[in-house]
Design goal:
Distance between the termini of chain A: 37 Å
Largest sheet of chain A: 22 strands, antiparallel, barrel
Number of helices of chain B: 19
Number of strands of chain B: 9
Largest interface: A-B, 101 and 94 residues
Shape of chain B: globular
Radius of gyration of chain A: 33 Å
Largest sheet of chain B: 3 strands, antiparallel
Strand order of the largest sheet of chain B: 2-7-6
Number of helices of chain A: 18
Oligomer: heterodimer
Radius of gyration of chain B: 25 Å
Structural class of chain B: mainly alpha
């Protein structure tokens, strides 16, 4: 605690600290005086009728023992009435013998006759017939009955959307909530999916929704931008802070979509807000729940992919050999090689003892050698994947009295790995205690922690190579990428059952050996302490304080052992040819004529990256809640909050670490010299600091529960824009209203109508963009000069001052309708229109000021959409029930002002690019023309409008490119059906998306090696002149023709051409669940309260997708590295309650 | 009571806002702060243009011809050969050089602004001097590429280039081109203000900064280009305190003569070579491409430049001229410093170190200035210093240049012409691959011809407007600057 205080005082510095709290109390004082003046008036008015007694009490919900705010209490036959406050409490004047009517939408109305008693506590029972149309919306600051909620928000209970076996709360949202789109660009544990609320709102920003857990904004440990999510880089595994949450602890999700709903987050809410409420202890007997999931991820099979078997593959190699590719001279000198390389090595390997060559240089001997590999048909999926076993245990205990409630939980998750290269363990703990000290004061204390220990294949960062039009990742050993990209002629084991190596980077390579010897270990500790205080200053005025501190530390260690290919590549120097070609060797610039030498003579690498986050959050909130009879209710809330997040990223690369020599490093000084001369450092550390301060006030007025008006104003300050004081503050605001039409007298007698609400809101939201140069930004660098004695430390201008810098902003209009009909059907529909402006984007300037590309607030965008959810109870009976739920979201955005100058590669890459008039990320293609009749190589309309194989990808002439469509789907949703018969229930959940385009995997190359696996469509490739009339699959080039291409890359261009784009539409059976609830009568005899077992199949069937995808997952970006698709999974679950 | 509470709360709210405003003063990241002489020195490390002018200057000049065997067919090389505007804005393009000059200028301007804010005290004098010279240099190079050569008669009306003296603080700053005269006046002002402040002690690696010698060499070039030969001589005399050029020249006859290709590459742009008065690292692939471009140094041009000279001796240059497999002739002057984007990556950024000012240039500039003043004896004296370090087996008895020898070699009695021609030839021979020839072609407005292997001839006549490069089109459009006439 003292440490905490010290940190806190560092942050605020003493003066600010003292003034803030001193000041706060003055402020509170002021408000209290002001408010009590008002309340005194109301009390006086009510005291006029002296013969009545005061009755007070509390209204709770039966289902979860939570207090119900906003319950209407009226005295039957009069106009007198009251509404319960935030804690469900009420006080009302009644005469003895009068009847109190407690009514609340979604609950059965209760009438109570008042006698002499002064306290009447009520438990309302949910009216199940109205389905889930009525809920309490939590915006993270307060809970509001959604009939009184004027914004567009959706609440889903965690239990309703949970898919057993899915441990990341991020992914649970897919297809469950209108307006939320989730794309699983990678399925690896910890990797965040691409999640959007109502689509993108920024061109250069993250577009990530704000996550709020129990009122506290959840900061990301590392900022992974939208485009980075699909890179497969190791830091993507830290992208999801939510991955540390035990989903069994989550009570509900509230998705806040429009300006009114997100009002209280103002300047960070542009991308929507997802509020997670975790479980609390309840009053009553202790409940102990256990939930266990036992699942298996199913091994992928070649059946679902389009890859040549080894016989076809070998036939292709034979063609390559004929075309001059696999000749002895080239293959034996190449960095990488497969079976041909092996054959040539044997042929040239003379054994003096037996007086023989490894293989005779005859046609027969060669054919014999190759035939083993032609028949190998290696199943890489079998070798690299297994049907994994995953177990998840979660135990929670809760108990509570009126005075105190506790909720404690712990969970353990273990996945022994879908591939042989990964596994993960996660432990979570959650302790939450609430104390009602007296009628005025309540306290809450929460401690949440999680530990993660994960192993993934060793991986380096992916590089974009715009020259050739490709992405490079050196030493990629991602098992999935390996399996789909590696020739099936290669074998993992030789005839004797020993591991067989081929050549990569001039060193022996065997994938099994490599995943054992090159791996990353990711460890993360995430701890949050949170305290809540609520104090009822007067009957109507409530003061809330929330404070939290969160500390996350994660380390990722890449262990590259001495036997790995990566380490051995640094030692490959067998011949002078290899020495000249091996880029991992060192040439001393001081000795220009020397041969390149090995600078990693022993050991491997121990590379460590650490990310750390410390965040603080403080909020003071005052609310005044009052009702004047049943006619008027007013709520005024004012609050002040402070957030800060300090992040640190550090790395330290160890060269020559000897894993097999007790961990003693053996470092050749020249490797450090090489690094420094190459302008690299072997260690480094960077820090970022985020500070936010906000003030806001919200007022809400409700008339007869029919008309609700709400208005919010907010002032946010952030240090993110830089040192300028003008840029940092931003006011935001919104107004909204709701009309509960069904409460109108003219609607009273319509029995079919359960409820009908019309809502509208308009307001301004914002976010800080990706620019921090409200004042000059200077960066320390070192000069890029070849000799160490000439290198200087330098400061360069990173960004010129932009005195016009401001926040990215958005106006949003939302009109919504919610209705319930026939006690069977609920429909919620929200239409929205958004105008984003002052968006940050790169803009070209004359360069005369010193910076040719600036980031400035000038881009505009508009978007519109529809969020629709329909719930219907099709069958309702004592035994048989069938309910169905359809979620549909449509969103479309268009850039209305943008002056960027993208080059061809920016627009044709799979992630797409931004263009004026297009969506936020649009996919373009190089227009494919035809195959050349002489060589079968592809031709395109290039940047000069000429039909050619050569397209200059860095050209800014993009007019000729073909626009394919948006990369982000315009339509997303889900369709959920639950059938139940007695104690058995069956749930079928389907997700879908449509309206986007996908670029197919880049499988074509100018030249192939004997390592490459080829898709089966290669069987239809161009082979003879004239084939170009029948096929669009290019040939395998002739080596002589290839040499004439020089700097043209027609085959890479083909990967980015219109011939390689398909529709992204899909329908997927996301999950199917069969559950059985054990009968209560039986359970009682064995001492359980509840027990159920269920069987879940998730991700089992891609019902519809573009056929041309040929097994490629429409959501997944096969980027290698740590990215894996979401596997098919079968889960058995057991849930017990004691 | 109510009123007091009201005022109280307003005051308190104000204080609260102020307090938090202070909390927001924390900078969002580890950005650098330039607030000490040492920090400003570091800032000025980047006040030199990190772009390269050599690729397009060589390509426009008569130092190159078509090498049909050279595969590298790139717009930054092919377009300038026909005096067209390159369509690219990557490394080695005029547009990249343009923006890198202005980046250097912005850096210098920021340094000057910070120095001003810190009170412009004596502590910052050296930094101020360097900033002024760096600013002058970048503008000088720009005006000599994108405007007409200085000509007293028309400089007052010839379009200049924007001379920037203030840091830009808005997204789109407003600029005007001014005239060649006004640009030269500004450059002169900065040079004169900066020169006395320069001290070599201020620098960690003096050869990468405007040290005294480099600053005087710059002043020499400036006044020569401004047609004030007397001043050029005055500053050339200051380049070396002892006036000894010879001992500071490139060791062509000794170290260079015995070096291998790799050694030569390593030596030529090294700061230990005393001839390199000012070096600069540039983001450029020139070191990779100068002997690979289609339009590059050919055998014909090699013979033209190194075939003969008035001394009667043989140039040493041929001794270290090599032929690449693509038949491009080259002197291995550059070595690429390739900075990978990651330690294991195969892609990255190429850097080429450029000698911006050398002893040889200062010496030959002085010789030229003497010639312009018709002081031929002194000019020839300087030329003899030069030749003594460039003629193989130099023998003063045989190779010393005289007016008579000159007149005989050129078959003329026009000493001025012969002397100037010799100096320009020496410069051409010395600075092959270094882009310097283009500036001489511009200054003396002599016609040149480019040939292609298919026999076509392209001529750049005297007075041809293409001698002035067009401003980068988009930059001109965005800044609303008038284009050069075509």
């Amino acid at each position: 605690m003292s440490l905490l205080l010290r940190k806190a005082s560092c942050f605020f510095n003493l003066l600010c600290f003292a003034s803030k709290y001193g000041v706060l109390f003055f402020w509170l004082n002021a408000l209290i005086v002001a408010f009590s003046f008002v309340s005194a008036h109301t009390v006086q008015a009510q005291n006029a009728d002296q013969q009545k007694q005061t009755v007070s009490g509390k209204v709770i919900s039966q289902s979860n023992s939570q207090p119900l705010p906003g319950v209407s209490i009226s005295v039957k036959g009069t106009v007198r009435g009251m509404v319960t406050d935030m804690t469900g409490a009420y006080t009302i004047e009644v005469a003895s013998g009068e009847i109190l009517v407690f009514s609340f939408i979604g609950y059965n109305t209760i009438e109570v006759s008042v006698g002499k008693q002064t306290e009447v506590n009520i438990t309302l029972v949910e009216d199940i017939t109205t389905l889930n149309g009525i809920t309490v919306i939590s915006d993270g600051y307060q809970n509001v009955n959604n009939r009184n909620f004027t914004g567009s928000a959706a609440r889903v209970k965690a239990d309703d959307i949970k898919i057993d076996g899915v441990v990341d709360a991020n992914r649970m949202m897919q297809g469950r909530v209108a307006g939320v789109s989730v794309q699983n660009v990678s399925g690896t544990f910890g990797a965040a999916p691409k999640i959007r609320v109502r689509g993108a709102t920024s061109i250069s920003g993250d577009n990530k929704p704000l996550w709020v857990v129990d009122g506290i904004v959840l900061e990301d440990v590392v900022n992974v931008s939208a485009d980075q999510l699909s890179t497969g880089n190791p830091n993507t595994l830290l992208g999801s802070s939510v991955a540390g949450l035990n989903v069994n602890d989550i009570e509900s999700f509230n998705i806040l979509r429009d300006a009114a709903a997100t009002a209280l987050y103002g300047a960070r809410a542009k991308d929507g807000v997802i509020v997670i409420t975790t479980k609390k202890g309840k009053v009553g007997t202790p409940i102990i729940s256990y939930s266990g999931n036992f699942s298996s991820s199913l091994k992928p099979t070649y059946g679902s992919y389009n890859i040549m078997n080894s016989r076809d593959q070998m036939a292709v190699y034979a063609e390559m050999e004929r075309k001059g590719w696999l000749n002895y001279a080239d293959v034996s000198r190449a960095a990488d090689g497969g079976v041909y390389r092996k054959m040539y090595d044997l042929i040239s390997n003379y054994d003096a003892t037996t007086n023989q060559f490894g293989l005779a240089n005859t046609q027969e001997a060669k054919a014999g050698f190759l035939s083993r590999y032609a028949q190998a048909n290696t199943n890489w999926f079998d070798i690299l994947f297994h049907n994994s076993f995953i177990q998840e245990h979660s135990l929670s205990m809760q108990s509570g009295t009126e005075a105190s409630q506790f909720y404690v939980s712990g969970s353990y998750y273990q996945d022994n790995g879908w591939t042989i290269a990964d596994n993960v363990k996660r432990y979570t703990a959650n302790m939450r205690a609430n104390f009602n000290i007296n009628k005025k004061l309540t306290l809450g204390l929460t401690t949440v922690g999680s530990i993660r220990d994960q192993r993934v294949p060793g991986t380096l960062e992916r590089k974009e190579n715009p020259v050739e039009g490709s992405y490079d990742r050196d030493f990629d050993i991602n098992p999935y990428s390996y399996a789909i990209n590696t020739s099936r002629t290669l074998t993992a084991y030789d005839e004797n059952g020993n591991r067989e190596s081929f050549t990569r980077n001039f060193a022996p390579f065997n994938i099994l050996n490599e995943v054992e010897n090159n791996y990353m270990q990711i460890k993360q500790v995430d701890l949050k302490l949170q305290g809540d205080v609520s104090y009822k200053i007067t009957k109507d005025i409530n003061y809330n304080f929330v404070g939290a501190v969160r500390y996350v530390k994660s380390s990722s260690e890449q262990n590259v052992r001495e036997n790995s290919n990566l380490a051995n590549a640094f030692r490959a120097a067998a011949s002078s040819t290899i020495r000249q070609a091996n880029r991992f060797l060192y040439t001393d610039p001081d000795n220009p004529d020397a041969q390149p030498i090995v600078v990693l003579p022993r050991g491997g690498f121990y590379n460590r990256t650490e990310n750390q986050l410390i965040s603080y959050y403080l909020r003071n909130q005052l609310s005044w809640n009052s009702s004047f009879s049943t006619l008027h209710a007013v709520t005024v809330t004012a609050a002040q909050e402070i957030r800060n997040a300090d992040r640190q990223n550090a790395f330290n690369n160890g060269y020559g670490y000897q894993f097999e020599r007790g961990g003693v490093p053996f470092t050749d000084y020249r490797i450090i010299k090489q690094l420094l001369e190459g302008n690299f450092n072997y260690f480094g550390m960077g820090q970022t600091y985020e500070r936010y301060a906000s003030y806001f006030a919200n007022a809400k007025y409700t008339f007869r529960d029919k008309y609700i008006f709400s208005a919010t104003g907010r002032m946010d300050g952030s240090n993110r824009l830089g040192a300028s004081r003008q840029a940092r503050w931003l006011p935001t605001w919104n107004v909204s209203g709701a009309w509960n039409v069904d409460m109108e007298p003219f609607m009273k007698n319509r029995a079919y109508l359960d409820f009908l609400t019309i809502r509208a809101s308009y307001g301004l939201t914002a976010n800080t963009g990706n620019a921090t140069n409200s004042s000059l930004v200077l960066k320390n660098v070192s000069t890029r000069r070849p000799y160490l004695d000439e290198i200087e430390s330098a400061i360069r201008i990173d960004a010129l001052e932009n005195s016009e810098l401001t926040w990215e902003k958005q106006y949003e209009l939302n009109v919504g309708i919610s209705t319930g009909l026939f006690k069977r059907l609920t429909i919620t529909a929200d239409f929205y229109q958004r105008k984003q402006f002052d968006l940050i984007s790169a803009i070209r300037t004359s360069g005369i000021g010193g910076e040719i590309l600036k980031t400035a607030n000038y881009a505009n965008m508009k978007s519109k959409g529809l969020d629709l959810s329909i719930g219907v109870s099709i069958l309702k009976g004592d035994l048989l029930n069938w309910s169905s739920n359809l979620i549909f979201s449509y969103t479309k955005n268009e850039i209305t002002n943008l002056r960027n100058t993208p080059n061809i590669f920016d627009l044709v890459k799979p992630e797409g690019g931004a263009t004026l008039g297009g969506p936020v990320r649009g996919l373009f293609s190089i227009p494919y023309a035809q195959l050349e009749s002489s060589s079968g190589s592809p031709l395109f309309t290039n940047e000069e409008g000429v039909i050619s194989g050569n397209v200059y990808l860095q050209s800014q002439e993009v007019g000729q490119l073909k626009y394919e469509g948006s990369v982000d789907p315009t339509i997303t949703g889900g369709f959920n059906n639950t059938f139940s018969y007695k104690n058995i229930s069956l749930n079928i959940f389907i997700t879908y998306q449509a309206g986007n385009k996908i670029r197919l995997s880049p499988v074509f190359k100018n030249r192939y090696t004997d390592l490459d696996a080829m898709p089966r469509e290669f069987l239809d490739r161009w082979t003879l002149a004239g084939d170009e009339k029948a096929t669009s699959i290019p040939s395998i080039l002739d080596a002589r023709y290839f040499s004439r291409l020089s700097s043209a890359y027609p085959y890479n261009n083909y990967n980015y051409s219109s011939a390689r784009v398909v529709n992204g539409d899909y329908v997927r059976l996301r999950s199917i669940v069969l559950a059985y609830k054990l009968p209560t009568t039986f359970l009682q005899t064995i001492g359980f309260k509840t027990a159920s077992i269920s069987l879940t199949g998730s991700n089992l069937w891609l019902i519809y997708s573009d056929r041309r995808l040929e097994g490629q997952d429409p959501e997944f970006f096969a980027a290698g590295g740590v990215a894996l698709p979401v596997p098919k999974q079968v889960v058995a679950s057991l849930k017990l309650g004691f | 009571m109510k009123k007091i509470v009201y005022y109280q709360s307003i005051a308190v709210l104000g204080l609260l806002l102020l307090g938090c405003d202070k909390a927001l003063d924390v900078l969002p990241d580890n950005r650098a702060q330039a607030n000490s002489p040492a920090a400003i020195t570091e800032l000025l490390v980047t006040a030199y243009p990190q772009g390269n002018y050599m690729a397009f200057c060589e390509s426009m000049s008569d130092n190159v011809g078509e090498n049909y065997g050279a595969p590298t067919d790139k717009p930054e090389n092919t377009k300038p050969y026909f005096w067209e505007e390159p369509t690219v804005r990557e490394e080695d393009s005029p547009e990249r050089y343009w923006s890198s000059c202005y980046t250097a200028i912005a850096t210098a301007n920021h340094a000057l602004e910070i120095i001003q804010q810190l009170g412009d005290t004596k502590d910052y004098a050296a930094q101020k001097g360097e900033a002024l010279l760096a600013r002058a240099y970048a503008h000088f190079m720009l005006v000599n590429l994108f405007s007409k050569s200085y000509d007293q008669a028309s400089a007052g009306t010839d379009l200049g280039i924007p001379y920037v003296t203030e840091p830009e603080k808005v997204v789109f700053g407003k600029y005007t081109r001014g005239t060649v005269q006004s640009v030269y006046e500004n450059i002169e002002k900065d040079i004169l203000a900066g020169l006395p402040l320069i001290t070599n002690q201020a620098y960690e690696v003096p050869r990468y900064h405007f040290n005294k010698s480099a600053a005087y060499a710059f002043a020499t070039r400036f006044y020569l280009f401004k047609r004030e030969p007397a001043k050029a001589i005055e500053y050339a005399n200051l380049v070396f305190p002892d006036g000894n050029f010879l001992s500071n020249m490139r060791p062509w006859l000794t170290t260079y003569a015995n070096s291998t290709v790799n050694e030569f590459e390593a030596l030529y742009t090294r700061s230990t070579d005393k001839s390199n008065l000012l070096l600069c690292e540039t983001n450029s692939y020139w070191a990779r491409n100068y002997n690979g471009y289609r339009y590059s140094f050919t055998s014909e041009i090699f013979n033209e430049i190194y075939g003969s000279n008035p001394t009667g001796g043989d140039w040493i240059y041929g001794n270290r001229t090599f032929v690449a497999s693509n038949i491009v002739y080259f002197i291995p002057k550059f070595r690429e410093h390739f900075v990978r984007i990651n330690i294991n990556a195969s892609i990255g950024d190429g850097y080429t170190i450029l000698p911006l000012f050398t002893t040889e240039e200062a010496l030959l500039n002085r010789a030229e200035a003497y010639t312009l003043l018709q002081q031929y004896t002194l000019a020839i004296k300087d030329l003899n210093v030069f030749f003594s370090a460039r003629i193989a087996n130099y023998d003063p008895a045989k190779h010393t240049l005289t007016v008579a020898k000159l007149q005989q070699y050129f078959q003329t009695n026009n000493t001025f012409g012969a002397c100037l021609q010799t100096i320009l030839d020496c410069k051409r021979a010395e600075f092959v691959h270094e882009g310097m020839r283009w500036f001489d072609i511009r200054r003396y407005d002599f016609p040149i011809q480019h040939l292609t292997t298919t026999g076509e001839q392209f001529t750049l006549a005297a007075g041809d407007p293409r001698r002035v490069m067009q401003l980068p089109q988009e930059a001109a459009k965005l800044a609303e600057l008038p284009l050069n006439p075509r």
